[in-house]
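Shift notes (night). Ran DUF2007 domain-containing protein while the centrifuge was going.
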Amino acid sequence: MRVVAVTGDPVRLSFLAALLRDAGIGCVVLDAHIAAVEGNIGAFPRRLAVAARDAGAARAVLREAGELPRDAPA
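Came back to this:
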């Protein structure tokens, strides 16, 4: 698994996951349960991860949507 995004914003996280799913890339949200336990105060941001083989494609999708900087590692 490779982490392609880290955010404490649940709306952005949902948007990023939808972008990846629409592109046919499976993804999982890591740390969702710890965020719920800590009361969603933002101390533990959630991570969006994809299979290692899909990491490059996932970053390309997020970059094209303007959600990753152009100079972010591929």
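The chain has one domain: 2-64. The longest helix spans residues 10-22.
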